[in-house]
Amino acid sequence: MREHMLTAIAAASGLDALEACRVEALGKQGTITALLKTLGKMTPDERLVQGPIIQGLREAVANGIAQRKATLERAALDARLASETLDMTLPADAAPAGTIHPVSQVMDELAEIFADLGFAVATGPEIETDWHNFSALNIPETHPARAMHDTFYIQQGIDAKAAGTADEKTTFSLLRTHTSPVQIRTMLSQKPPIRIIAPGRTYRSDSDATHTPMFHQVEGLVIDKGITLGHLKWTLETFVKAFFERDDIVLRMRPSYFPFTEPSVEIDVGYTLVKGKRVVGGAEPDGWLEILGSGMVHRKVIEACGLDPDEWQGFAFGCGIDRLAMLKYGMDDLRPFFDGDIRWLKHYGFSS
Ligand code: PHE
């Protein structure tokens, strides 16, 4: 019987067949269960002989079933693993990804280009004092340039002035109208030689297709000994060629006026018409686009920062970042830059 049962168990082709074997031997009506019941009616002597035999049989069958069960289960798992395929090379469902805003992209590009030229990145506050934004830059209170800057004033500053408690160097009274106050802050906090760019937000009360009340500028400042207009020209040429990624770019310098530079130079970049669109570059330009203001730092500005203008000279420039982005990436309206329209960002944004 033992052999018969163990053979049947070992031959069980599946878990159902094995369960049938178990019921037949060990179930309530099972053969071994019936044998175990006979033990109670035996004499002690008989039981002493039959007990171990029947128990041994029960154990052997139970072990056989457990072993066969494990084998069948393993086989079932192997079969499932073989039939179910999981393709690890399939792309995962794309999570909605953000993009880099063109302004951030251009700021990063500027930082990289100027880092190669030895410029560090400097920053300053967007809420500024009168002194840093104007006076130290040789724009006195009565200067018409103040009116031209369409300044946003801060009520606290206005109140302090009215109350006579304003301090020109510490009372924050306006939103900076340009990044030039970072020139002042840098000269006050660092010893020359200085080579920095300062990208950031600027504010003017102005709004149309090419002006928004908040916009971005990048300031450049070099202070060292023996700096000339030639250094400025070379730096700007190198920058513009690297930024627009072409060598056939012609720059035009035009005399201009800024209170904080002398001489002052406006820089135009040559464009060529490609299918009616203005594209920066071309050895023989079809026209010019103004891209930045610059000049040699005015003696009065160097003096205002506690430096001796006979010892230290330098150049500075200021450039609209949004405009640079528009020219490089072909946008024709400035306003959507700041609308946060996700379709525009998808179209013009940069994937990270
Ligand atoms: N701050 C000037 C502007 O906003 C630009 C500029 C910066 C000009 C530095 C000369 C030197 O128009």
TrEMBL record:
Its cofactor is Mg(2+). Tetramer of two alpha and two beta subunits. This is Phenylalanine--tRNA ligase alpha subunit. GO terms for biological process: phenylalanyl-tRNA aminoacylation. It comes from Sphingomonas aurantiaca. Pfam families: Phe_tRNA-synt_N (PF02912), tRNA-synt_2d (PF01409). NCBIfam families: pheS. Belongs to the class-II aminoacyl-tRNA synthetase family. Phe-tRNA synthetase alpha subunit type 1 subfamily.
